[in-house]
């Protein structure tokens, strides 16, 4: 069964606490907007699409469970818009939440003003239905990304089997409503028997690749190997890697792509080795209002995330079989691993210039550069 990061039914939302993975699978309730804001900020939920969906569903749950009957339609509209604005402040780089908030503002504005008989309840009902639709739509979009991306890679490398790929960042069921974006393409390649091996990087913050992506690859029984972020050039020089597949937190109008820190350097290394570089992103991650990467705000995280690691203690010495370490989940400790006094530079994302990207895969198909070497990103919205 696929991992499920988000559990929702009308009036109730819970999320898999991603700070506890991969050693503990514990769902926490998200009954309201302020719990959602904190869960996003502290990375209990992460991944651009998942963040957006959890935020809007949390507001849907809060609205469903509150007694709004005495409020007027304009008053509930103001409340919804200000709560959406607040949610958008949780993390700045991914555009999906801002995109969802804008769509829901437009929709509720229409619901509140379309007829004179609009009530707070009709506005709330319109909001809840639209938020629930976003959850379902994200899964469909990811499956389409998986199909388009797998086919593009097969054609680009003229192979339908024995394809090896490297992925960076966290883009599977944990980062989306389900199925995943970049990991959705890997899932599709695997389902087609085209994939021989997937490599994943450790990826910061909190080593999301070794904790989350690796966990999902193991869970899905996709043949996979973990490397540190600094091993990509070594990997490319020793293995026949067909493509690097990454997700996106925001794709600008020219194709410049903000994604998990380290994506840019992987693109440089991939270009050196002639390895295809593929971005997988739903159109909710494409921001035509941002001209290029210079306009994307990059989140910086606290330095202690680099200085300190936390995790459960180890209870056995597995010798050479380091993949089977037993852990004591009841004894979680933090370990300082850097010298006292050292400064830390900790951007959470970087921007890969469009020039280093070969294909941008959305649910509507694959956008490639035109004869002028430019990504016509508007074509993603057909
Ligand atoms: C699934 S889309 C891309 C992801 O949002 C992104 O690359 C990523 O790794 C998630 O970042 P995070 O900092 O964990 O929210």
- Strand order, sheet with most strands: 6-5-4-7-10-15-16
Q: How many β-strand runs? A: 16
**What is the CATH-assigned architecture of the largest domain?**
3-Layer(aba) Sandwich
Q: List the domain count as a whole number.
A: 3
Order of helices and strands: EEEHHHHHEHEHEHEEEHEEHEEEEE
Query: How much β-strand is present in the residues?
Result: 15-25%
Name the ligand types.
5-S-methyl-1-O-phosphono-5-thio-D-ribulose
Query: Major β-sheet, in short?
Result: 7 strands, mixed
Unreliable segments of 5+ consecutive residues: none
Helix content: 25-40%
For this structure, the CATH topology of the largest domain is Rossmann fold
Keywords: Amino-acid biosynthesis, Cytoplasm, Isomerase, Methionine biosynthesis, Nucleus
EC number: 5.3.1.23
Family: Belongs to the eIF-2B alpha/beta/delta subunits family. MtnA subfamily.
Catalytic activity: 5-(methylsulfanyl)-alpha-D-ribose 1-phosphate = 5-(methylsulfanyl)-D-ribulose 1-phosphate
Quick description:
The protein is α/β, with parallel strands linked by helices and 382 residues long. Helices cover 37% and strands 20% of the residues.
Structure description:
This protein is α/β, with parallel strands linked by helices. The protein has three domains: 6-138, Four Helix Bundle (Hemerythrin (Met), subunit A) (Up-down Bundle), CATH 1.20.120.420; 159-301 and 345-380, Rossmann fold (3-Layer(aba) Sandwich), CATH 3.40.50; 304-336, no CATH class. It is built from ten helices and 16 strands. The chain has helices at residues 33-41, 48-65, 73-88, 96-113, 120-157, 182-191, 208-219, 232-238, 263-273, 304-307, and strands at 6-9, 12-16, 27-29, 163-168, 195-201, 224-227, 243-246, 250-252, 257-260, 276-280, 286-287, 308-314, 327-336, 349-352, 359-362, 365-367. α4 (96-113) packs antiparallel against α5 (120-157) and α8 (232-238) packs parallel to α9 (263-273). The relative contact order is 0.12. It binds 5-S-methyl-1-O-phosphono-5-thio-D-ribulose (MRU). The site of 5-S-methyl-1-O-phosphono-5-thio-D-ribulose has 18 residues, from α2 and β9. Catalyzes the interconversion of methylthioribose-1-phosphate (MTR-1-P) into methylthioribulose-1-phosphate (MTRu-1-P). One of its GO terms (molecular function) is S-methyl-5-thioribose-1-phosphate isomerase activity. Keywords: Amino-acid biosynthesis, Cytoplasm, Isomerase, Methionine biosynthesis, Nucleus.
